[in-house]
Amino acid sequence: MHSDASDEQLIQLHLSGDPRGMEAIYERYFDRIYRLAYSKLRSTQDAEDVTSAIFLKLCRSLDSFRGEAKFSTWIYTVANNAVMDSIRRRRPNVSLDADLRVDGGDWVPREIEDNAPGPEDHVADADLARYVYSKLDALPPGQRSVIELRYFMELSYQQIADQLGVELGTVKSRLNRAIAALRSLVSTEEEVKASAFR
Amino acid sequence: MRSDEQMEAIETGEDSAIVRALRTGATPAPEFRARLKQSFLSEAESDARRRKAYRLSILGLPRFYINLAVVGAAAALILMAFTYSVWFRPARTLETAEEQRQSVAMTERADSEPHNALLSPRSGARGFAPDAGDTADTVYVEYSTPLADEVQGALELIAAEAGGIVESAGAGDSAGEAQTVVLTVPSDVLDHVLGRLDEVIGTAKVSQPVHLNSEQVTVYITFSPD
User: Fold this and answer.
1) DSSP 3-state assignment of A50?
2) Of A1, A21, A91, A98, which is most buried, counting CB atoms within 10 Å of its CB?
């Protein structure tokens, strides 16, 4: 019913007291927000928690949406802040370089838990996706932002340029370099895996 | 700058698997989607109701208080319309030196007159509340004939009929001077008394009484032969 309406029209519908505007917003943004959260948290449970928090606070947060920016860029900022808050809360407050003292008084090196799938898991598409997501952290922040806005939030190149305050050409070149970097990372892992089995 | 076609080729060419992985790699569980949707829509409905209620009110105040304020303002206006003469009394105008002299002379003359005549039409007194001395209505009746004995008797008869008293002001005993008789009667029979005077003594010049809702009225009857 409201599939053709713009985000801003749907928001106005809700602000005028009609809750159907928010139903369309949910259908439009649920997957995008979840993908963004998962790409940073890489935990289904954490991504679900953050996505729930974002949507359940969305209605009341609308008072801070003044219509100066597109709704898609506003909700990206809101979601990004929520995800970063979640990361800060769950991050242990110890240095990763520090070793641990065990009961016997001996110091042992910390083992960093890595939930990311290894190269051997790349067979299926789902595994490839998880693997690609795990490599996003290796990208420079500028390139990662372009990836998030383009493939998670589904913005156009021009909207990305407006959101980041850069030229349209900059957006395209960053996206190109980001995808090339991801391809390179995946290929390198594949070669490592192949050489290990020789 | 890369054209859109070039970008499309990158996304659909050799890197299409990576792009597809990014676009579809993280799929939320359908149960989670349905559960959150239910909670979200419930929250949205409640928020929409709140916003609608707010929009219907003014400045976020409940309707009840706005109606109360409107009714209060209307009542205040009505009250002021009925009592404007109390709140907005005419200001005293500035008097010239000549007017001040006349005013002093008038006060002196009023002081020399009987005390209960201060609010007579000639006194010039103004104001909302009566003074302590302004307790009686006063009527002046003037005859251009002398006070004859039969007239004196008729006055006593009229006073007796009305339940009042008659007394002489004590001036003008000699012939040719004006004589004044003071008749004090209840206010509610004043019209009857004036009618009887007209009937028994004759037509006279009668001043308008000053109404103060007093129980007694004082009638000054002056006989001044030409």
Assistant:
1) helix
2) A21
**Residue A153 to residue A83: CA distance in whole angstroms:** 14
Choose among A19, A44, A152: nearest Cβ to B41: A19
Domain at A7-90, CATH from 2.40.50.1020, 3.40.50.620, 3.60.20.40, 1.10.1740.10:
1.10.1740.10
d(CA B32, CA B38): 10
The model's pLDDT over A7-26, given as tens digits with 9 standing for 90+, comes to: 888 888 888 888 788 889 99
Cα–Cα distance measured from residue B223 to residue B226, given in angstroms and rounded to the nearest whole number: 10
Chain B: closest CA distance from residue A107 (Å): 39
pTM for the model stands at 0.53
For the A120-196 domain, the top CATH level (class) is: mainly alpha
In a structure prediction context, what are the per-residue pLDDT tens digits for chain B, which is 226 residues long? 456 666 666 666 677 888 888 888 788 899 999 999 999 999 888 888 888 777 666 666 667 778 889 999 999 999 888 887 777 666 666 666 667 667 766 666 655 555 544 444 444 444 444 444 455 578 888 888 888 888 888 888 888 888 888 888 765 555 567 788 888 888 888 888 888 888 888 887 888 666 666 778 888 888 887 6
Helix (H, G, I), strand (E, B) or coil at B213: coil
Q: In chain A, positions 65-124, which contact chain B (CB-CB < 8 Å)?
A: none
A-chain residue closest to B30, CA distance: A31
| Element containing residue A126 per DSSP (H, E) | helix A125-134
Q: Return the DSSP state at A172.
A: H
User: How many CA atoms does the CB half-sphere of A146 hold within 13 Å?
Assistant: 23
A 2-31: CB under 8 A from B = 14-19, 22-23, 26, 30-31
User: Are A30 and B45 an interchain contact pair (Cβ–Cβ within 8 Å)?
Assistant: no
Q: Which residues of chain B neighbour A129 with C-beta distances below 8 Å?
A: 21-22, 24-26
Smallest CA–CA distance, residue A109 to chain B, in Å, is: 33
- Domain edges within chain A: 7-90, 120-196
Q: Which residues of chain B are within 8 Å of residue A60 when distances are taken between CB atoms?
A: 47
Mind telling me how many Å the CA of B53 is from chain A's nearest CA?
8
